[in-house]
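Appendix B. One record, verbatim.
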Amino acid sequence: MARYNDAVCKLCRREGEKLFLKGERCLSPKCAVERRPYPPGLHGKQAQFRKKDSDYALQLRAKQKARRVYGVMERQFRRYFSDAERRRGLTGTNLLIMLESRLDNVVFRLGFATSRPQARQLVRHGHFEVNGHKVNIPSYLMQSGDVVAVRPASRNKPWFKEMAADLEHRAAPDWLSRDDVTLSGRVLAQPTRGDIDVTINEQLIVEYYSR
C-alpha cells in the first residue's frame, strides 16, 4: 500500500497554512509554518512573489489540500470522488462527508488521538473495535449508529491512560457522542457540511475533476 513517508511539515508549508498533521506541535512555536512561512524547496522563498495563480492551480491546490488533511493517496481520493458523484446531493459535499466518516477521522474527532496521522496509526495497530469487532482499516466508513471503542486489551497502555485523563479538554462534534468512562463513541448521524470545520473549497475540487 502506498503511503507518504516524507516530512509532513512540508505539506503544511506547501499549502501555506497549518493542516494540523502533527497534533499539539502545530500549536507550538516549533511549527514549521511559523518558522518558515514559504513553500519548501530551493526556490520556496521566491514563490511568494510570483504572479497570481491560474484557475487550474487553485483547483489543484484545493484537491491536494483535501488529500493531505485526510491522509488519502491520489488513487483512493479519485475513487472517493467517483462514489460521491453517484450519490444524491452535491458532489463536493458528499465527498467531504465520506472523508469525515472514515474511521481514522472519527477516532480523531472523538479525541482519542491528537492528529489524523496518529489516529490512522492507532487504528492500523488494532487498538479499536467497531460494533464489538476489531477493525484495523483506517478507511472504514462509519454509519449512523456505529459504535467505536478502544479495545479492552489496549486501555491499560500508557497512551490511552494519558489520553483518558485529558479527554475533558477535547470536545467531540455534535454528530458524535463520547463516553469517557468506556473510551467509546457513537455516530449519532452523518455529518453535514456545517459540521465540517476544515477550510476546503469543495467546489474547486469538483471543477478540477470536471475538466
